[in-house]
Structures are given as structure tokens and as C-alpha cells.
Amino acid sequence: MAVTAPNTATRASTASRTGAAAVTAGLLLLVAVLAVVDITQGTADVGVHETVKALTGRADAGGSSVVIASRLPRMAAGLLVGVCLGMAGAALQAVSRNVLAAPDTLAVNAGSYLGLGLLAVTGTSLPLLASSGVAFVGGLAAAAAVLGLSGLGTGTVRLVLAGSALALGLNSITEGLLLLFPEETDGLYQWNQGSIGQNGFSGVLQMAPIAVTGLVGLLLLARRVDALALGDDAARGLGVPVRFTRVTVVVLAALLSAAAVTLAGPIGFVGLCAPALVRPLGRRFKGFVRARGTIPVAGLVGAALVLGSDVLLRALITAQTAVSVPTGVVTSLVGAVFLMVMAVRVRDTGAVGATERQRIPSRAAFQVTLVVLIAVLVGLTIAAVLLGDAKLLLGDVVNWAQGRAGQTVTFVLDTRVPRVLAALSAGAALALSGTLVQAVTRNPLAEPGILGVSGGAALGAVLLVTTVPLAGSWGIAGAAFTGALLAAALVFGLAARGGFQQNRLVLVGVAVSTGTTALISLLIVLTDPFNATKALTWLSGSTYGRSLTDTAPLAVVLAVGVAVAFARRTELDLVSLDDDTPRLLGLPLARGRLGFLLLSVLLSATAVAAAGTIGFVGLVAPHAARALVGRRHVRVLPVAMLLGAALVCLADLLGRTLIAPAQLGAGLMTAIVGTPYFMYLLFRSRGGR
Fold this sequence. Notes:
Layout (H helix, E strand, L loop, with lengths): L3 H37 L7 H8 L5 H36 L11 H14 L6 H23 L5 H25 L7 H5 L9 H19 L1 H7 L3 H6 L4 H23 L5 H9 L12 H26 L2 H6 L2 H19 L17 H24 L7 H8 L5 H35 L11 H15 L5 H23 L6 H26 L4 H8 L8 H20 L1 H7 L4 H5 L4 H23 L5 H13 L3 H25 L8 H19 L5
Helix pairs in contact: 1-3, 1-13, 2-3, 3-8, 3-11, 3-12, 3-13, 4-5, 4-6, 4-11, 5-6, 5-11, 6-21, 6-29, 8-11, 12-13, 15-21, 16-28, 18-23, 18-26, 18-27, 18-28, 19-20, 19-21, 19-26, 20-21, 20-26, 23-26, 27-28, 28-29
């Protein structure tokens, strides 16, 4: 037996190596087949036979030029981008010990996007290699911020939340630049959707050395990365410089991501999916357990994902239409589904938000807070009506109300007053919606935007606007509610398995939000590919062009929501405590939860229909209200709505006046304000976990 055991172990090891080699060979064959098929697809009538002739130099000038100048570079770009993103994702997941770490979830793509946007605005023309350096700096800075706030190996949800919030803030800044400088940033929005289409081999040849450098660097650090998987203390015991290794791996991953982003724009979720598809292989073959085997194979899987998405897209729709659809939209949709699957399987690790202090201010303090907020809101409303590209006086408003104003003043106030009312109503509705959903889910980080409800509403509204341009305000509100209801049903339906666990709820919400954003981009590209401003204006949360008719559905829903919330305020208090207390008191918990969630969805949907996508209001306002007046909803509800209305009104006012006559959407302004607050909540809760 003493001789047989080693022989058995040797045979098992040999079989494992043989199996790993066979899997690797199979992946290489798959990538090769996809590459060949990708070359044969396109708008020009150049089939397999003509393609082979072009590759061997025997084709006519037309067929040869199509293959050599367009199809081969596109295929090569798909290979390079997939390899870079797959390797970057595998390295980030290994070094952070977090299965959801990727260039997307670490906001690397958003940082690179902002860097290139700033470069475009300044009018600086740099070679592709230098532009890659700018993207690298932006992506590295974003990754450092996310990893610093979320911590390493401290939970999957914290990293996704930090990355998603920072990406939203950075993208808001970039989208603001695109709206302010449309000529300087022409084409940047389409580029941000991610496309592997190329014009010649120049870009691929310049980025290839960066990919090789990143691969070689990661392979040289593979042993240290494997040691980190044992834990920091064990790695130090083996003589591994933990901090230096982590920083170096993150830098190399950011370098690979920057190369991919510079070449093809952000191709979403490849860096997340590729390592996750390789991970199960490690349970069968030891060759895929160590970083030296995992990282290159993840690169192969990434290449297969990118080329497979491109091939599938061109196989399902016509070649002419496929040209307009970016590859990044397809991979984002696939990644959103993948993230949902991961969310259902992830184990809840406790709260992800900061624990709020249990304080009960006096009645006098509550009344003072209420009076101050009402005064602030009245002041902001007056300022919003009077200020803008044309400044007015209170007397002009009085004359307009009495029908005695001049033509110019009448025109200004007829367009400005509905905007102010839309901002006030949307802010109050989003704050009320956030308060309800946080109470029902008992999740301090739940809000309509993060949970994908606002994204579903925006998708429904944009779908109607792009297909029925003459749709009225009630029709848009109905479409937004339908989209929000479907998104909420998906999010809460999946999260309900296990009792609305915080990790699962947030991850599914982020996935749905990502999917709806990709679908909105797809709609805009397919229906009006040259009008990126339409999508940006809607997604940035603008009240521009709103009329009293547009705000009517929101006003009705808000009135109903306020009446129901205040009438059921005691039930709301009980639901927010735990599951047992309402049942002991005979309250139908499931029915009450469903009713509050439906009301929250309705409020969010009509707010999106009236003012576009405005993020973070449903998060910031309830948090601030509880900090000011305690946790009883009889106090939280009015304070949260006043804060939400004031925040959106202020954001709309600043967006209209700071750079008049140009304007920025209120959603961009609230994202710029809400992102730091959200990151602060995550930072404050690090020690409490």
C-alpha cells in the first residue's frame, strides 16, 4: 500500500494536468472558430470563400480591402479586449478575495471614461498610446478609491455598492461634459457603449504591447497572488510583501483595462463573467487553482465572450442593424443576467449600511426643524422662479399671476414655473418612495435608483417616447409605471427568497439597473443613433420643457401617496422593526409590505416620467430625516419630503443658473452631491461590520 498510494496520487495529478491541457486546447479551438466566423460576418457580401482568398492574397481589391481593413482588425480587437478584461478581472478577484471584483464593479471603466472626456473637452489631441495613459490614470484612481472604501475581502456587496456609486458619480460628471461641450466630445457617447469596430490595425498594434506587459507582470506575481489567497498573515509568514503585491496587481489590472477601454470603449462585465466561468474548473483540475493557470485561461474565456457576443449579435439581426449596436451593450445585458444569478447564490453577510443612532428628539426640536425646512423650501422656490437665464422680480410674478404681465415675462414664467413644480414634486415623491422602501426592506441603502426601479421606469418611458413620439404625459407616466413595476417585480421577487436579504436585494437591484441602462442605450442607438443628446437629457434628470400637464400625473400620485403613508404611519413603524412584532399585533405583514412597495414603485415611476432619472434623492433624504428627527415615520415622512423637494429644486436651480444659458440636468447635480454621501455611509460603516 505504501507504494500504491504515491502511484495513485501521481496518476491523479497526471490526469488533472491532462484534463487542464484538454480544456485549454478546447478554449483555444473555440476562440479560433469564433474568430473565423467573426471575419466572415459583415455588411459587405464577402463570404467564406472570398475571405480565404483575401487572407491568401488572391482576392480582388474590393473584397481584400474589406477583410484586411475592417474585419480582421475588428476580430483582433475583440481578441485583445477580451483577453485584457478577462485577465484583469481574474487578477482583481484574486488579490481582493472578492468574486465580484472586476473593471466594472471597481469603476475602472468610469474613471477611464472621465479621463478621456476631460481630454476631449480641453481639445487636446493625443496619440492613441498617450490617450491610453490618461485612461489608465483615471481608471487606477477610481479603483484605488473603491478598494479603499470597500476594503479587501470584507464582503461582496460593499465593493459593488462603492463601485456602482462612484461610477454613477463619475459618469454624471462625464455626461455633463458631453452636454456642455457637444462639439468637442462628439462621438464620445457612442464610444462609451463599447464597440470593437476598427479602422485598420493601428490601434490593435499599439495596445498589444500593453496587454503583453500586463500578462507577463501578472504571471511573474502569480506565486505571490496564490499566497495572498491563504490570508494576509499566512502570506507575510511566507515572506510575501502583501501591500506591495496588492498595489502592483491592481496597477497591472488597471493597465490592462485602460488598454481595452482605449481601444474599444467600455465592454461591460467581461472581467466579471470570465473568471467566474473559470472558477468551477478549479474544482476538477488543479491546473486552474493557481493564478498562473487561472489568469491566462480567464483571458481566453474573455476573448470567447467578446467574440461570441459579436458573432451572436450579427447572427440574430441584420448586418446593417448590427453595425449600429455596440458590442458593449450585448455584454452588459449578459453581465446583468450573470450578476442576478450571482446575487441569488450569494450568502448574506449582514448589514451593508451604517448603523443609525437611536435618538428621539423632543417635540419642540421636531417643530423647529419642520419650520426651518419649510422656510428653506419657500426661499428656494422663490429663487428658482426668479432666477435663470432671465432674472425677474416678485412684482413680475404677481403681475403674471393676475394676467397683467408683458409678453416676455409671461413666456419666461410659463416655462419656468412648471419646471419648478416638477422639481419640487419629483423630489418629494422620490424621498417618500425611498422612505417606504427602506422601511419595508429594513435596508438603509435601498432606494429606487439603486434597486433598479428608476431604471425600469426610465426604460418604459424611453420605449414609449422613441416608438410613439406624440405620446402624452399620462401615457408616458403609464409606460414608466409599467417598466418600474416589472423591474420591481423582478428585484423584489428574487430578493424575497430568504426574506429580503440585504446583499441579495442590492445586488439584484444593481443588475437590473445595469440591464435597463444597456437597453435604453440600445433603444436610442437603434431608433435614433445620431441623437445621443436625447438619451443623455432624459437620463440626466432634466425638467427642461416640462408643462403643467406633464406634472399632473405626479401631483395626483404624490397626493395619494402622502395620504396613504400618513394614514398607515403606525404600520410603517412596525414593519420597519422586524417580522415578529407586526404578526403578534395581528397585522398582515405580507400584504402590508406589498402595498407599500407598490406605492413606492408608483411614486418613483411618475417622478421619472415627470423629471427623468434623478438618483440618490431616495437615499439621502430619508437618511438625513432620521438623523434630524428620529425613526418615527410620523416625523420622518414630512421631513424627508421637504428635504427631497429642496434638494431637487436646488439641483435644478443650480443646473439652470451656474452656466446659463447652458444647462445641466438635476439628476447630474444630485448624483454629484449624492455620490460622496453614499460613499461616506459606506466608509462610516466599515468598522461596524
